Amino acid sequence: MAAPVAEGRTSQQLFVSETDAFVPASQLPGTAIQHTYLKLYEKTKRRGGRPGRNILLNGIATHQGRVRSATRAEFRRSIPILRRASTAATGTGGAASAQLEAIAQCESGGDPTAIGGGGLYRGKYQFSYGTWQSAGGSGDPAAAPEAEQDRRAAALLARDGAGQWPVCGS
User: With CB atoms 3.0 to 4.6 Å apart as the test, which of 50, 122, 147, 170 could cross-link to 141 if both were Cys?
Assistant: First the structure.
């Protein structure tokens, strides 16, 4: 529905539901902060962590039962928490060892969902199904959480050495 405004122009009348709360534009985060938040949120989930409510996509629930957009300050408080959660989710206090990280970068660019070799090699460390199963994995390595891929690769490296990755392990 259009409503008349000054100078004879019309503008769209906005309807706000009773469950939405208003946050001034000056308090909203910029796209860089939003991008950083979302990237860390997804990384924490991929690594098997529990990042909680996604405040970028779902907003903040107020004590009156309303929902509002998260403010810049709330994102800035959340980002360091997500950084810690994304590294703690691996169970090693950080990502995999420096050697495994180098192998993962070489094999898949560090992408835990990567599929290569015409579908024969899968996941962050490009496991074959046979190698994945020999390391105790089940199902599709590329569908496994990143933390599990890190654990299985570490066990494989400890058991058999870097020979499992003939190009990237040397």
Answer: 122
pLDDT at 1 over 80: no
pTM as predicted: 0.48
Average pLDDT value for residue range 43-50: 79
Residue 49 lies in a domain: yes
- Other Cβ atoms less than 10 A from the Cβ of 2: the count is 9
Dist CA 122 CA 130 (whole Å): 11
Which is higher by pLDDT, 150 or 10? 150
Confidence at residue 62, expressed as pLDDT on a 0 to 100 scale: 77
**Do 156 and 103 share a domain, yes or no?**
yes
What residue spans of 5-62 are helical by DSSP H? 31-46, 55-58
At 116, which CATH number? Answer: 1.10.530.10
CA distances for 34 relative to 50, 64, 110, 143, 148, angstroms: 19, 25, 22, 26, 28
